[in-house]
Amino acid sequence: MSAPIASVEIFSQGEEVVTGQIADTNAAWLAQELVTMGFDVSRHTAVGDRLDALRDLLREIAGRADCCLCTGGLGPTRDDLTAEAVGQAFGLKLALDEVALEHITAYFARLGVAMPTINRKQALIPCGAARLDNHWGTAPGFALEAGRCWFVFLPGVPSEMRGMFQHSVAADLQKRFRLRPRRLITLRTVGIGESALQERLDGIALPPEVNLGFRAAAPEVQVKLLFPADFDETSLDATVQMATKALGEVVFSVEGLNQPGGDLPQTVGHLLRQRQRTLAILESASGGLLASQCAGEPWFLEAAVFADTARLCRHFGLQYRATEDTGPLARTVAELAEKHLQGTGADYALAQLFVPAVARSEVFLALATPSGTLTCHRTVRGELRRRQAVAAAISLDLLRRHLRDLPMP
Q: Are the CB atoms for 160 and 139 separated by under 8 Å?
């Protein structure tokens, strides 16, 4: 009989987290790291700057979890209460850690300023706790055992938290717990929703021990396959291939295998580099986002960004008339892409036109290639930033499909 999976909780402290002033990206990032390591993430909890609530929660966690990662509340101000709450929860006095104080003082010295007296508070650590050095900021972390739980306290600043976790915490957790890392494979898709993805996967029989999940973050939806630690490698490859085949041409990359993954711009860039081809862009619907995603790449020649379709058409001496008939706009966007291809000397040219309406845009795309021009029309819904992100993605996806000889949307 295999040993039970170690349970871990994630505890975020801070009024700004509870009130929604900031998104708790720390908890999401830590959860992914801990699941991959082999932990069972049982709970996420957030508490504001309230000493009694912090103290009570720490006591609860000490009695039910094997491990707990806590972020936030280690700063120098009055609302940073984590160390004090730990002391009250477990009957520990706070003591000045001279090494921590030296590190904090040195941090300010590197900035060329004297350390404010208030920052001395950050060097107060519960007696018996192990100090965790912070090479990215002022607040040291600390770790201790209470009840059945091993607690790790880290700063709330994401860059500091991640640096400390990767530098020292992850290795320590692997020593303390008998972990069997699970394998997460992510199939990244574009141009399709969760319901349609589920319908495609309903036609296959995934092994019962494989956990299936979805993560929607426009413009893509990720399909997550979480495999047990002892899952046979050959069977894993076969399962991923089966799922990829069922999903079809909407899968643009697979992460977690021994092959390049990446987002959609990276995927298209890889294909262009392989073929030694170049791209030029005429952009309106995505508001400059598409050009920013391609900027700095050797295959990207140039982009022209226009605020609206009428302005874009006038620039190229073409007439634009808003109409419910999609035929004229499809022909216009094709002509624009062809003109841009000829004018820039690129191997490919992407052009966009859009007709805005309330909470949606009708987006017309064209890809001019040496062998002809491809067009498509999509309705993009949601708030403005979402529509821009989706317009950029479907433009790149049109190019990806052409480069891979896949069916057009």
A: yes
Of 401, 388, 340, nearest to 361 by C-alpha is: 388
DSSP reduced 3-state for 376: strand
**Residue-level length of the chain:** 409
Q: Are 336 and 317 in contact (CB under 8 A)?
A: no
Helix (H) / strand (E) containing 377? strand 372-381
What confidence tens digit (pLDDT) does each residue in 312-339 have?
888 888 877 765 556 788 889 999 999 9
Whether residue 1 is predicted with pLDDT greater than 50 in this model: the reply is no
391-404 exposure pattern, b = at least 16 Cβ within 10 A, e = fewer: bbbbbbbbbbbbbe
The string of DSSP letters for 216-267 reads EETTEEEEEEEE-TT--HHHHHHHHHHHHHHHGGGEEEEESSSS----HHHH
What is the structure's pLDDT at 322?
65
Full-model pTM: 0.76
> What integer is the mean pLDDT of 178-188?
90
Instruction: Write out pLDDT tens, residues 4-52.
Output: 789 999 999 999 999 989 989 999 999 989 988 989 999 999 999 999 9
SS3 202: coil
Q: What is the pLDDT of residues 273-282, one digit of tens each?
A: 999 999 999 9
Domains of the chain: 7-176 (3.40.980.10), 183-260 (3.30.70.2860), 265-403 (3.90.950.20)
Look up tokens 């634009």; give the residue: 320
Rg of the chain over Cα atoms, rounded to whole angstroms, equals 27
The residue with tokens 């991640």 is 162
